[in-house]
Write the structure tokens for this entry.
Amino acid sequence: MKRNIVIAAVTAAALVGGGTATALAVTGNGADGEGTATARQADARETGSGVQDDDARDDDAPDDDGARVSGDVTAAEAVASALRHSPGTAVSVELDDQDDSGPVVWDVDVLGDGTTWHSVRIDPGTGKVLGSYTEHEDDTAEVRAALKGATVTAAEAAEAAAGKGTVTSVDLDEDGTSKAWEVETYKSGNAEQDWRVDLTTGKVTADKADDDVDGDDD
């Protein structure tokens, strides 16, 4: 369900070459003047935080969970900050280390009006918005249908699972009949764990699918 803007690859190329890349980003009527489709200058040297718009990750690389859990801003707080910047419904939040070499950021996906999605990056140390982009998705109706009748938000799901460890991601599972928030947590010295949070009750249960995969690996 995690969705990211296709400006990432162009910006990553600029980072490698030390230059400036230009990409087209379709934006909505945001409060910061992001009103129309515009050619954005994506210069990583001007972000002030070294944020890289590149979440193409090497699945074979070691997953250093300890390095990803940093900063004082929780997943729920990152969602709140993103919603102040781009009002709507938060559908996912992830502590993203992007290419395993840059600094981590909270990446929050917000469903706005119509088919508009906002991807908002939050500084995990200060809670400040580092940047945002807007896109349109075809599966918006399915997401809205999955959330219909839900009383537990992504932020509340993160808070519900916080007792299991430090929450590193929350994502809506809108597939199948058992729809829920999928939450990942991390505890020092332990592997990352997956949980499911009920959309109406907030009940936290272990992700059986994840347990089955772990069992197959053994």
